[in-house]
Amino acid sequence: MGEEVDRVEFTRADRTAFRDQVHRNLDAFARMLREDRFAPDRPMTGIEIELNLVDERCDPAFKNSEVLSAIEDDAFQTELGQFNIEINVPPGQIDGIGLDTMESNIRDSLNAAEEKASRTGSSMVVVGILPTLLTEHIHREALSTNPRYALLNDQIFAARGEDVQISIDGIERLQVTADSIVPEAACTSTQFHLQVTPEAFPRYWNAAQAISGVQLAIGANSPFLFGKELLRETRIALFEQAADTRTHELKTQGVRPRVWFGERWITSIFDLFEENSRYYPALLPVTSDEDPIAVLDRGDTPALSELRLHNGTIYRWNRPVYDVVREKPHLRVENRVLPAGPTVVDTIANGAFYFGLVRALADDERPIWSQMSFSAAEENFHEAAKSGIDAEVFWPGVGTARATELVLRRLLPLASKGLEAWGVDTSVRDRLLGIIEQRCLTNRNGASWQVDEFHRLYTKGSHDRKDALRGMLRRYRDHMHENTPVHEWPID
């Protein structure tokens, strides 16, 4: 959520005050847009990577407090489940060798953290959903001890009024019930942040939405949940269901979910923040003493804490972000589409593909979003979640095609052009986009490797299901630490 909260009960007056303050924040934000108060455009990005903790058997390790104490690095933070932590990579420049530098820094940080985590009997795994996570691990006591997670859990269930129903039809079928939001903790992702100007924001957000299906197809890495083989990126359906505050009746009425793709292309970042206040009741109605209009009147920058807190409880796959750094406000597109992993180099390659492609599409004189419907982009997204690297997606001027063919023939050249526009060194650009190219040529991503290795051990071998998942994850972890791109991983 990005904010610390300590209230345990909320009154009707709290909710009224919070709604009023969000509206006042919106008024201040609109004024800031009119008065051009934002930091200039720079090719800066930040990355967040969520991690899973496992024990010596590769089962979940519920030790995030111990691990964080051992790591002693502010870049690592708690996440929702006790088997999760997160690394926040400091913002850096995309241009030059910036992406190479980011890769080296992330590897160094994770290697150092892994060595310290091992002292607690834990190991870190970068994967979309931990394959060895079972229903027996999903209980309220698995929530991290930070009070904000228990509070969020209570507010979601107060809004729902009933248990969470997880129902996913994939290669196999899953139906489970949960009495907490812990299933959400199974979803570990990579989040790319891109700082843009207010004028450029709608172009970049629309571009990010348009390519989300392709991103997901190429980067899928979550084929297993609770011991079952489901979708190639099961994380999407799981997150949509686990964080849903709606009852069945509200879904039938068309009430918007809190995890959603969206419903239209936008013309201003204000559209998204206004939707937040219009459609979503507050989950955490914590108000500050700030009067944002008065802050603007004296020439300072408002924190807009209510707007930010409310936005943090609405989970768009591409989310708008307002932030203040050194008294300077700025805006970011937060791309939340991809799972974590499989390796650091794969993650940075995914980032290079994303940064380059959205830049090229945002700069295009004839925007891609003027050539395809929003519903087509959403259909691409969910088809990619289902089929992964085998997905067929729609693209203007091409029609329906294999995502891998679309990337090879159309999108990689665009991504290269975009990275050139960002000023990325040719050698960096070619190396990272070359990984995406090889992934498409070999038809191998994290999800396909996991599935093939599992079936080698289970279907064709003598392992039972649990041991096959453990054995697969053990090999996955070894390859992950070698930082070899996933398209080169063997099926032993």
UniProtKB/TrEMBL annotation:
Q: What PANTHER family has UniProt attached to this entry?
A: CONSERVED PROTEIN, GLUTAMATE--CYSTEINE LIGASE 2-RELATED
Q: Where are the transmembrane segments?
A: none
> Is Metal-binding there in the keyword field?
no
The name this protein carries in UniProt is Glutamate-cysteine ligase family protein
Sorted UniProt keywords:
Ligase
Gene3D superfamilies from the UniProt entry = 3.30.590.20
Give the catalytic activity. L-cysteine + L-glutamate + ATP = gamma-L-glutamyl-L-cysteine + ADP + phosphate + H(+)
MF terms per GO, please?
ligase activity
Tree of life domain: Bacteria
Any one Pfam family here would be GCS2
User: Which InterPro entries does the record cross-reference, listed alphabetically?
Assistant: GCL_type2/YbdK_subfam, GCS2, Gln_synth/guanido_kin_cat_dom, UCP012666
